Amino acid sequence: MGQEDAEIFAGARIFGPPAEAYGTGLADLATATSGWNDQSDLVNTYLARMSYIYGRNINAKSGLDAFKSQLIRIEATVQVRDGLYGVFDNCDVVQFLGCLTMAAKSLCGRDVQVYIANTRGSTPKIETLATFANKEIRTRILNPKWAEGMLRHGFSGAIEIDKNVELMFIWDSVHSDTVKEWMWQQVVEKYVFDNMRNQLIHANPHAFKSIAAWALEVARRGMWVPDAATLTQLKDLYIQTNVNYGVTCCHHTCANMAFNQFVVMGSSLSLDQLHQFANTLNRATGRTVNIPAGADAPAAPGPAPGTPGMEVSADEAGEQPAAEAGDEGQRAYEVAKTDPGAPGQPSMPIVAIAGVILLLCLFGAGYFKAEILSLLGFANFSSRISSISSLFSSFSWIYFFMIFLKFLSA
Ligand SMILES: [Zn+2]
């Protein structure tokens, strides 16, 4: 190493992503749950991504060792919150403050204090992240007024609730002190087990499935250890809603087959219902989940008969999964609304169009009867058949409208 490089590495204090890139990339990695096993994967990705040195005449110089040597000395981290945005409604705090803390703890092997410089209001104060996060969880996602306010916005409000739950998962993954187990328990009781479930499903069944899936994923990873009955009920509701509404395919659901296997293994639903879930998943992803016992039982595709007492029923809005089969292992598929009437019965419009053309010809024959008869040399007889022709034209129009109405109703 030359003297110039040695001076740059020794004096480096400002680190960030590569030139012209933004963010740590950790929010995307953490939520793609099949892409990482334990926290060391997240730490390595953070270090690789954020170890570029910036300074006077230094623009994104790669300096992993210099970055590590600074992280080892960290005792506390802090980030400012000065507006309405908190720590669970956007990914910036977790990907910068959370991941910086995670990487420092991992390298130095001791605890690192995390603070929020809360400059909201007239009296700025320093709070621990745990205090700040606890207040935000209680006043937002666990607050009935907040939930009702979100659900008044229907589909998009349900997405906002899901986003907060997703941020809980990311925080729990990178800095588990922020999210306590009782928080997961209460989120599940409120949004998955309680009356809020029906409102949420009605507003946006895909957001409901996503929320249930986040809770199941933290349970699968042992970040939250619910009692057996809670876990079974959570699995059953997740499966049942997927059968009724189709799979919601994204990074933490369809794309993670270990997750899907975990879900079916502890479910108390019937084999028939489990096979329906497996079929729905297979139609969407082309991938197979193994049903525990009696897996050779015939599987019947289509909507589930429903589980008594669970009150998870597909409404009649026509939500259908886009059942696209794929052969790439990690591919995920979006769920789209389809028009059940669109692809079927192509013969009806063709018959209707042919009928309309025929009737237009008959009407034309009636309207231009004089010219036609003249051309054929029957001009003298035109007056005799005039009344018959007019009558025929009228019947043509009536028949035309009947066909048209039939066409519209089809
Ligand atoms: Zn997802």
Account of the protein in words:
By secondary structure, the chain is mainly α. It has helices at residues 3-11, 26-31, 39-50, 64-71, 92-108, 129-139, 144-151, 154-174, 181-193, 196-203, 205-220, 228-245, 257-265, 271-285, 347-367, 369-376, 382-409; strands at 14-16, 52-55, 58-62, 76-81, 113-118, 125-128. Strand 4, helix 5 (92-108) and strand 5 form a beta-alpha-beta unit. Helix 9 runs antiparallel to helix 11 (205-220). Residues 295-311, 313-348 and 381-385 have low confidence and may be disordered. Zinc ion binds at residues 250-253.
- Tell me the fraction of residues in β-strands, as a range: 5-15%
Give the mean pLDDT: 82
Amino-to-carboxy terminus distance: 78 Å
Derived from helix and strand composition plus strand pairing, the structural class reads mainly alpha
Task: Summarize it.
This protein is mainly alpha-helical and 410 residues long.
Topology summary:
Layout: H1 3-11, E1 14-16, H2 26-31, H3 39-50, E2 52-55, E3 58-62, H4 64-71, E4 76-81, H5 92-108, E5 113-118, E6 125-128, H6 129-139, H7 144-151, H8 154-174, H9 181-193, H10 196-203, H11 205-220, H12 228-245, H13 257-265, H14 271-285, H15 347-367, H16 369-376, H17 382-409
Parallel strand pairs: 4-5
Antiparallel strand pairs: 1-2, 2-3, 5-6
Helix pairs in contact: 3-5, 5-8, 7-8, 8-11, 9-11, 10-11, 11-12, 12-14, 15-17
The chain binds zinc ion (ZN).
